[in-house]
Amino acid sequence: MALVTTTEMFKKAYDGGYAIGAFNVNNMEIVQGIADAAIELRSPVILQVSAGARKYAKHNYLIKLVEAVLSEAPDLPIALHLDHGADFEICKSCIDGGFTSVMIDCSSKPFDENIAETKKVVEYAHSKGVVVEAELGTLAGIEDDVKVEAGCASYTRPEEVEEFVDRTGCDSLAIAIGTSHGAYKFKPGTNPQLRFDVLHEVEKKLPGFPIVLHGASSVPQQFVKTINENGGSLKDAIGVPEDQLREAARSAVCKINIDSDLRLAMTAGVRQVLVEKPDAFDPREYLKAGRANVKSIVAHKITDVLGSAGKA
For site-directed labelling of 209, which of 89, 103, 224, 286 has its Cα 20 to 30 A away? Predict the structure, then answer.
């Protein structure tokens, strides 16, 4: 099977009360960990590439890694998605370069400017058979080139979503309901709560339309603990409660983005090996441990959070 768009994935997920995991990829081991879990659990999957990942690993290398996954899982629905495309040019580059889905993120711009830029990308993407994710509302936190101070974050306004989707023609919409980029999403001692009231209002305005959650890593404390026990310093790293993500996946949320959890998993494996075996210098040894952690956390997300196991 060639790469697919997210259209059929999202329709099945919406009707089935589950979500598709959009896992960010940066190198071979992360791609392998995600793929191994998805193949074993028969889960559709979105391999997601940020602008930072393209700068680090180079577009062609990432494409070839994804092609390798396709050769191992020819019957598994896999989409290749651009995460947080900043402008038309990067979206066009990815569309022309083999991606089946792109996100244009103009959420920090005024409403009408967001619409105009998004529509431009949609028109080009649709002419090439590619789907487009857009965003309304702004998440706090840091992820690659996306940096938003907490005071500048804003929840999505449900009264705007219908006009936005109608005028842009986008295929899915990322909304802001309290998730956040990075590993430091909430202050210690707080009780993180997603704004399900906002989500449900958006659902009413856009019946049957796929919604996306960014910044949805849960920051697994076992990996934080391992990192800190092996020379790291991740103080007060707190993520989105998984029970709330599972609740979101049962609603109109068809795509849940996960990046920081993979970074934590990889780092925990590498740090543990290097501390326990200070004479180790073979990258295969410590990267293998990181890859195993990535596979483990992706399998957990697919089975216990997203609900997408067995849906391929």
Answer: 89
User: pLDDT digits over 72-99, tens only?
Assistant: 999 999 999 999 999 999 999 999 999 9
Residue 145 is a catalytic residue: no
Q: What's the rounded mean pLDDT across residues 59-83?
A: 97
**Sign of the dihedral through C-alpha 42, 32, 135, 131:** negative
Instruction: Record the tokens describing residue 106, joined without a space.
Output: 């103009």
CA distance 90 to 288: 32
Residue 142, pLDDT above cutoff 60: no
Annotated catalytic residue within 36, 83, 259, 261? 83
This prediction has a pTM of 0.93
CA separation for the pair 52, 59 (Å, rounded): 11
Q: Report the candidate in 93, 78, 74 with the shortest Cα–Cα distance to residue 23.
A: 78
Is there a contact between 302 and 37 (Cβ–Cβ < 8 Å)?
Answer: yes
Could you tell me how far CA 1 lies from the centroid of its own chain?
22
Residues 6+ apart with CB under 8 A from 108: 138, 148
Residue 159, judged by CB atoms within 10 A of its CB (0-12, 13-18, 19+), counts as exposed
